[in-house]
Specification:
Chains A, B, C, D: It holds the Pfam family Cyclase. Chains A, B, C, D: This is Cyclase. Chains A, B, C, D: GO terms for molecular function: arylformamidase activity. Chains A, B, C, D: InterPro entries: KFase/CYL, KFase_sf. Four copies of one chain form a homotetramer. With 282 residues, the first copy, chain A, is of the alpha/beta class. Chain A has a single domain, classed as Glucose Oxidase, domain 1, CATH 3.50.30.50. In chain A, 19% of the residues lie in helices and 23% in strands. Chain A contains eight helices and 15 strands. A nine-stranded mixed sheet of chain A has the order 1-15-13-7-9-11-12-5-14. A two-stranded antiparallel sheet of chain A has the order 2-4. A two-stranded parallel sheet of chain A has the order 8-10. Chain A is globular, with a radius of gyration of 20 Å. Chains in contact: A-B, A-C, A-D, B-C, B-D, C-D. At the A-C interface, β2 of A face β2 of C.
């Protein structure tokens, strides 16, 4: 029998995988006490059964888990049902009616198709020579996005997934859990104009290394979320938040295959995810 | 500017993606009331905030979620920490000590590396001409596995992920939620011998369309789980359960790129997942 | 110093307590796997931290809990907000508007005042010589209630809390968890006419030893709940369910002080409770 | 028929109740966002079903709840299983062994008998002329307790439940949720010596208006908990925390019947409670 690894492979995708790939993990570990918005149920984990609690007749033992959480905690994706404006969801549906029954049947997390698409990392602080990252409250403008795109030579195409690095992700593991959330300090990010710029490029989804894909002004908190409105309500572009982009940026990888498979939580407004940036070694 | 879709792509993986891919979704939707083992906390979802509950000054409104669940519900992967035998985990660590602190630091779900690997579907009922599926309680033997591998001409290689279809997945949506779990009827699946056969091929992970990767005899329930012991404890092979394999089988796709990114739930014994089978259209 | 136990006590209540009281526990233990309606999130408990997980510098260690549950599981009380009819709550408020914001501010569980009131046990099977209990699906009629009241010589007064024993509570610990819930068999209980009879006596609250204060016909499940409508929506009478009445009945105690303090769960539709029947030993 | 309210009542307790009672609610409302220790799963509530979601054939509709929480949140009682010292629980049992199986069978919350007992409020700030309350970090000493007992003329007896008011409860509703918890500021309370003094009086349970029945020094947090050790581990005295004592104190009620019925959460280390102080109007 010819060893399978030498067999000719008709599928070009599988052939590329066979040649070796580098996988960058863009998801944050979910752990009790991690920084998150107080607007959402906190992530908690416990082991109802541990090894040693109950041993089967054959010497076997199984441990298991109990989890409680919101869906907008940790690295996660927003379903289109997450935000409405003046009572309307993306596509115009009545937002109150859409939630009748306690789940969003039409635009819930279960309707997000798995993504296997070209991904682009816009490493804004690197292109702008902003050191470790953009300052708190800094608004990443269309000019910043265009300059980064050009500096990297990674033109954004329709259907792409664009990840905007602000550098704020370095605070995710800060001892003071409130620093990353930044409700008082503010957080850098794309504002309304940048969201329009991205949507005008026809992107399928956008991501950021911050808790919200927004520019949060110091002290303003989450009072208004214009980028969410533009992307989720007006343009139907998914948002991925609290991504881990440092390793990818350090490796200088600006273009890749992004694979993302949200949990199909029926009727939910979002899902925790572990997005992958994959590069063929070919 | 040259349109990105025409740009030459050095990355063979991305080039293959650019040529188009077919994505098969192997994850079941997570919904309240779906069949699951009573040994694990049931999946529940609720919307603490719906649209219309609170409207921001600019007309915006956000809805959000509250989830509670075990990690071995819906389509999920078992971490190596899930099962122990005679007090030992894979690698020999003391299973009780390993769980000290309420999380499995060494072999928990967060230690499962994302997978981008060759996947093989062993469509047993098709190869064995077993109609819609193997009967309740049927043990899929090494001979069955080898016959299926041969009939399909899909030799299993080291590092592959092998998905064994029994056909039982057609009951996932049965009106009687107890049918799929099959505690009284029994459930078809791979037994100890088949698990050894798979591990001997050097597979990285295995999957099934049943709630447990086991042959469950009628009335025996989950009293002993020999395939789990072989795979998780003795051989370090991950197990994926409650997969949706019907669409893939119907399409006759037996070889593909499998992408799986478990949630990095720190210290947990498993994670819900949405595995993807991806095929390049090349 | 005069020993406190001999001190004269001005408060007649405390004086009675000092003379000794018998306390009957009318609440069921809450444990994982107990029978409950599938319409509500199941009760689950886990220990995130156990002794030995983390020991403080002084040798101390604390264990703690994680709970998830509905509020209509175990022994519980229904807030008036639990049920509406034709879109109206008790008092006429619009039921949809009342829940805006994800909590019932006006008629939620937090609005149930603690109860220290005369309680009456109507031991129907005993008065009707129905052996261990009324048969499945049996409707306890106004005549049954009146006959029991008379046989016991416990006239019901305005403001009382009346507990109606059907005998069905003996199935709470049945090995088959579905027996107590009785969705297919039916469950005995007070129907619409009996609910009117009780409300006409001006009772403050009613209780039962069944999962619902209703007569459930075989196979009908919880499709319509007329006693709930009469009591909660039309008359403002609280309902206590899944009570443990066997010990009280066995002791032949038909009149007592009932103390009930629902958890003030802000905006919830009910609360788990542990009602007490207290009798002075005089 | 003689109206029940005029009927002679043989039960002195019920007779006292019939004469009228004043009920003081010593439990805090449970609401999302209330102050609590970060060591415990936060209280969260959601309505999976609201009125209007699903209307039955007869026009009826039921709303229901989903709760997740620790047991040491809101007003709660500590079971004896909550704390161990040098690996031993109250009575000497091995603390690790006692939790085998994920529940404390012997000393869990379900083993706390309902309480109908004499209660004494020691209003320390009033007796000590400490204005609104004891200062942050102040240790309430045995002398303080004795002075308060004497000033009030409420000698403490064996079997009593003694509630120690520090005045700190006025911060429970403070806009800054961290003030009540006081991890940095410190919190006033009974220390080791006071705990011994109380236990030496043979009390059955003690309570406080703070998140922990301890004197917390500024910045020390919950690093060591000597009063817990004395009471729970050495003396078998229950602890009630986060009580609402302001109304009772304002009314000048120092002696009463205390009724407390913890939820019988099988195997848990504590339970939320709504304790009542009841006074006969006699």
């Amino acid at each position: 029998m010819i060893p399978p690894t030498n067999a000719p492979v008709a599928d070009p995708l599988l052939a590329a995988v066979r040649c070796g790939v580098s996988v960058y993990d863009l998801g944050r570990p979910l752990s009790v006490g991690m920084p998150q918005s107080p607007n959402h149920p906190a992530y908690w984990h416990s082991l109802p059964r541990r090894h040693g609690d109950m041993v089967r007749s054959d010497g076997g033992s199984a441990a298991n888990d109990m989890i409680t959480m919101g869906t907008h905690v940790g690295t996660h994706i927003d379903a289109l049902a997450h935000v409405s404006h003046h009572g309307r969801l993306y596509g115009g549906a009545d937002a109150v009616e859409a939630g009748r029954g306690g789940r969003y049947v039409e635009l819930g997390a279960h309707t997000i198709a798995p993504m296997v698409r070209r991904g682009v990392l816009l490493d804004v602080p690197r292109a702008l020579s902003a050191g470790e990252g953009c300052p708190a409250g800094y608004e990443i403008t269309p000019d910043d996005l265009a300059a980064t795109e050009a500096a990297q030579d990674t033109p954004i195409g329709a259907g792409d997934i664009v990840l905007v690095r602000s550098g704020w992700g370095r605070f995710f593991d800060h001892a003071d859990r409130t620093v990353y959330v930044g409700l008082t300090s503010g957080v850098p990010g794309v504002g309304e104009a940048g969201a329009v710029w991205l949507a005008d490029h026809g992107v399928h989804a956008v991501g950021a290394d911050t808790i919200a894909f927004e520019c949060l002004r110091p002290g303003a908190g989450h009072s208004v979320l214009p980028a969410h409105r533009v992307l989720l309500v007006e343009r139907g572009v998914y948002i991925i938040e609290a991504m881990a982009l440092e390793e990818l940026a350090a490796a200088g990888v600006h273009e890749f295959t992004l694979v993302l498979a949200p949990l199909p939580l029926f009727g939910a407004t979002g899902s925790p995810v572990r997005p992958l940036a994959v590069v063929g070694n070919g």
